[in-house]
Amino acid sequence: QDIWTCIAALKDEGEAILVIDKTIQAMTKLADRHVILEKGRVVWSGSNAQFLADPTIIDRYLHL
């Protein structure tokens, strides 16, 4: 929990942050954009709104 609080504080300060994680709930609260890699290649990229609007992305790429 502490790490997400720190990341949120950095974002509030206007810092650019790269986070690599599968914690979807935490990521969607903080991320402006998502990039999904599979075997080293970008298979999906889009805004947080686009990610949240398409629930099949999680099933298709993240296998959660």
Please tell me about this protein's structure.
It contains four helices and two strands; from the N terminus they run H-H-E-E-H-H. The chain is of the alpha+beta class and 64 residues long. A two-stranded antiparallel ribbon has the order 1-2.
Q: Termini, distance in Å?
A: 21 Å
> What is the assembly state of the chains in this entry?
single chain
The radius of gyration computed from the alpha-carbon positions, rounded to a whole number of angstroms, is 12 Å
How confident overall, as mean pLDDT?
Answer: 92
Shape: globular
Percent range of helical residues: 40-55%
Topology:
Layout: H1 2-12, H2 24-30, E1 33-38, E2 41-47, H3 48-53, H4 56-62
Antiparallel strand pairs: 1-2
For this entry, give a set of tags.
64 residues, alpha+beta, 4 helices, 48% helix, 20% strand
The gist of it:
This protein has 4 helices and 2 strands.
